[in-house]
Amino acid sequence: MNISIVGGGDLSTAFIKQTSHNVTVYSHKDYDLTKKDRCLSLCKHLIDTDAVIITAGSFDSDLWNMWLINTVAPSYIICCLNDQQYKGQIIVISSNGANWTSWPEISQSRLMYNTSKQAISKFVAGIEHAENSGRYIIIEPSKFQSKMSQYQGSDIAHVVNAIEYALVNSVTKITLPSPKQL
C-alpha cells in the first residue's frame, strides 16, 4: 500500500519504523500548512496514493497558526482531494481533547487546541456521514510520547497500532484513552 503522511514529526517516524507500507512524508518543513497555496500544491502529490494520513498538529502560543494547522488545512486538503475524485482512505489524527474541550480555569491555548481538534473531528465525521463510504477515519489519541507532549503520555506505538488497525478494518473513529484510563 502506498501511503502519504501530511505532518512529519515523531508519529510519522514511529509509523515508518513499524509499517511495511511504502510511505512518503510531506512535512511542515516542505509544506507550510498555514498557507493555502502550499496546501493546494500538496494535494497534487497526494492524489495517487492509497491512503493519506494527516498527522499535522500544533499546540503553541500562536493561536492563529494552531487553528490553521489543526483544522483549516486538514479540512481544505480533504476537500481538495474530494474535488480531484480521490478514492483512497483518509485518516486524520485528532486528539482525545476533542471530547472534553473545556473545564474551569482552562488556559486559552488549551481551549483553542481542544476546540480546533473537536472541529476537525466533527468535520471528518460529517463528511463520512454524508458519503457513508468508510474512507474517512478519525483517530483521537490521548497525550502520547512526542515532542509536542514533551515525551510524556502513553507509548507512541499505541497510536501507530491504531493507524495500522484503521488501514485494514472498517472503522470510522478510534478514541484512545489516557494511560490512567486503561
How does this structure look, described?
With 182 residues, this protein is an alpha/beta fold. The protein has five helices and six strands; from the N terminus they run E-H-E-H-E-H-E-H-E-H-E. It has a six-stranded parallel sheet with strand order 2-1-3-4-5-6, sandwiched between helices. Strand 4 (89-93), helix 4 and strand 5 (136-140) form a beta-alpha-beta unit. Helix 2 (36-46) crosses helix 3 and helix 3 runs parallel beside helix 4. The longest helix is centred in the middle third of the chain and has 24 residues, at 108-131. The model has no long low-confidence stretch (mean pLDDT 90).
Task: Classify the oligomer.
Answer: single chain
* Shape by Cα distribution: globular
Distance between the termini: 32 Å
How many strands, what sense, and barrel or not for the largest sheet? 6 strands, parallel
- DSSP summary: helix tally: 5
Strand content: 15-25%
Order of helices and strands: EHEHEHEHEHE
Q: Any low-confidence stretches, pLDDT <50, length ≥5?
A: none
Main β-sheet, spatial strand arrangement: 2-1-3-4-5-6
What is the gyration radius calculated from CA atoms?
15 Å
Structural classification: alpha/beta
Beta strand count: 6
